[in-house]
Amino acid sequence: MIAATAFAGRKLALFGLGGSGIATAHALLAGGAEPVAWDDNRDRVFEAQAAGIPVADLRTIDWGDMAALVLAPGVPLTHPRPHWTVDLARAGGVEIIGDVELFVRQRRIDAPDCPFIAITGTNGKSTTTALIAHILEEAGRDTQLGGNIGTAVMTLEPPKAGRFFVVECSSYQIDLAPSINPSAGILLNLSPDHLDRHGTMQHYADVKERLVAGSDVAIVGTDDQWCTLIADRLERAGTRVVRISKRNVLADGYYAQGPQIFAAAGGTSQPVADLGTIATLRGAHNAQNAAAAIAACLAVGLNENEITAGLASFAGLQHRMQPVARRGRVLFVNDSKATNADAAGPALSSFDRIYWIAGGLAKEGGLHSLSGWFEHIAKAYLIGEAAPAFAATLGDTVRYEITGTLDRAVSHAADDAAKDDHGEPVVLLSPACASFDQYKNFEVRGNAFVAQVAALPDVTMLVDHQEA
Question: What's the whole-number mean pLDDT along residues 284-295?
Fold first, then answer.
């Protein structure tokens, strides 16, 4: 745990007592601060109190005594309207921050030069974050991985010289981290997302820009207009900018041409990595992730040999285009994290002969945005509530059957793929749906897929299904 000494001896209000909120409260207490916490969910308040965290209804406190409001990232700061605690803090002239800001301030106190890589973007954050951490660990670096990827940042080991921090940051976390200053900041891409919480695309982009604006080295994807403008603006302001692209040749930066990643300087380029044999880094989206990881790792002192070795041994992010088994020529891939159509697109674009398991609790828009990849689908196996609607969309374009449940889909898809003598058939779980009609979350759904694949005869597992 990181003890948050930046507020030692001072009172703070803390709102939001989920996992990261509880971790933040303990970090503040360990650092000698005097937090008082609250949540709109009374059960969470009782749990926090039982864990030794001081609690009080923040409507009743004297805000003039508070040094800050520490807000959980899931609590509205601006849209659709500020949370009531935000109104109270602003009325009292109290700054509003989050757990990432606490980490940033503690790093500044304890080890301001320890390498800190922060990653954001609309898509690809988690894979890029995990890939960077893996490369660093494989190279023997003392590495801490956390943030939006699932480990609360204040639960990591404390900053010290030579310790590397790799932190995934959502737009909500950046909005609450006004002094964020990574050694290398990554902005992968921008497309409309979370506009219910940011109001407009411009505001969303402005928030994301803060991460790279405060970086020693700003690594920015330039495959969309928003990020291209941000990269240009940062460069004019004097920030060192490294551009990356998954589809365009760059005069300076890192770009992909198929599975090859090139480094360019002054209009001259040379290959630095070949992803063609790395199953966990298939597809143009992963070429962008890898380019960002290469640029970030070079920025914090790794050499090309260390980076190449780390890329080659990357096992992939669980539930995200994760190769889990083979049976003969058939590859089984777990992409359960694809909970909407856009998230399923990268997997459908990365394989040529797909036996596709899709369905669950449908999101707005259905499958229409995926029509450009239908030619890659040999057959679809439709499950859950969305099955009838998905069948109507596929119509006569794609062969399908409504299997209803995941176990039937796995069995039927495996049998059909085994009879396919074209190329490399892939049984792909990429549901393009939420899981809640049949499973608690996408992790449980993905684990069920892996277990059902493991039960097939003559299968060679690529992951430990007992730990899935």
Answer: 95
